[in-house]
Amino acid sequence: MSDASLHSQASDRDAGFADYFALLKPRVMSLVVFTAMVGLLAAPVAVHPMIAFASILFIAVGGGASGALNMWWDADIDKVMTRTAQRPIPAGRVSPDEAYAIGMTLSVFAVIMLALAANWVAAGLLAFTIFFYVVVYTMWLKRWTPQNIVIGGAAGAFPPMIGWAVATGGISVESVLMFTLIFMWTPPHFWALALFMKSDYRDAGVPMLTVTHGRRATRAHILVYTLLLAGIAVGMGFTAVGGPIYLLVSVVMNALFVYGAVAIWRRDETAAQADGYRREKSFFGLSLLYLFLHFGAILGEAALAPYGLGGW
């Protein structure tokens, strides 16, 4: 779709607050906020509540800015895909220029304010995260390689490192482990979605693994990454951010996740289509719960540590 056409559509209907808020990808932003908050609270350095609140707010704004710039660049393919066709730009409620201006303004605002509220290490990580998501993933990897989700997943894995840096002013093994957990979780999470999105990615010309290598290969990749993820996730239970609570949660969730990945791997397309990709959708839903419970367990260990109940 041409820019002129998008401008024309956007002028036909005034955008409301909900449209501008949707530009910020609030569901993605909620994950950014949660994992950044866990990183901040799990750090061994106490942060004043007002500084913590302001920092999480600016991290959220930075995440939203990334979403707006992603929608600005991807408006053409969003128009083609069923899942994204009703986003504000392809639906004609917000113009690309507006989305770009909002994204750039909020990016600069978020980085500067986080530097002032916390420190320049956290702000630098936020700036790099925005750059990585918008330039490296959205503009380059997404339309170029089937490894787009694998490499691009780093963008979504940085928030706990940013939260940790807010508290400590630096990077540590613990924050890198939290990064790694999200980084390894991202491919099976999105590939499961790609399995039941049918032809969306092919129609949009996005080289998702299901398009370039087929669904059989995608199922095998989901299993391999899930097994690698399980080893990392359970292993984290024996580190400084882990403990008995985390280990219990991780063992149970990874057993379920591996079971789900094996079930998906063993399926053929005929069976999957016959039941409407029920198992694939179930695995995708489980992946959301998986990440929430792992980071919730990290938070629980940190909350109980002062009472001698969390950690080892």
Short description:
The protein has 312 residues and is an all-alpha fold.
Tags for this model:
2 domains; 312 residues; single chain; Tetracycline Repressor, domain 2; mainly alpha; 0% strand; disordered N terminus; 76% helix
Structural overview:
With 312 residues, the chain is an all-alpha fold. It has two domains: 9-171, Tetracycline Repressor, domain 2 (Orthogonal Bundle), CATH 1.10.357; 174-312. It is 76% helix and 0% strand. The chain has helices at residues 3-12, 17-23, 26-42, 49-73, 75-80, 96-117, 120-140, 148-152, 154-157, 159-168, 173-196, 200-204, 209-212, 215-235, 244-265, 269-274, 278-304. The longest helix has 27 residues, at 278-304. The radius of gyration is 20 Å and the shape is flat.
Could you give the topology of this structure?
Blueprint (H helix, E strand, L loop, with lengths): L2 H10 L4 H7 L2 H17 L6 H25 L1 H6 L15 H22 L2 H21 L7 H5 L1 H4 L1 H10 L4 H24 L3 H5 L4 H4 L2 H21 L8 H22 L3 H6 L3 H27 L8
Helix pairs in contact: 3-4, 3-10, 3-17, 4-6, 4-7, 4-10, 6-7, 7-10, 10-11, 11-14, 11-17, 14-15, 15-17
- CATH topology grouping of the largest domain: Tetracycline Repressor, domain 2
Q: What series of H and E elements makes up the topology?
A: HHHHHHHHHHHHHHHHH
The helix content, as a percent range, equals over 70%
- In CATH's first tier, which class of the largest domain applies? Mainly Alpha
| N- and C-termini, Cα separation | 56 Å
Radius of gyration: 20 Å
Query: Which structural class matches the secondary elements?
Result: mainly alpha
Reported for the largest beta sheet, the result is: none
* Overall 3D form: flat
Q: Count the strands?
A: 0
Spans of at least 5 consecutive residues with low confidence: 1-12
Number of separate structural domains:
2
**Average pLDDT reading:** 92
Specify the CATH architecture of the largest domain: Orthogonal Bundle
Share of β-strand residues: under 5%
Q: Mind telling me the CATH superfamily name of the largest domain?
A: UbiA prenyltransferase
Number of helices: 17
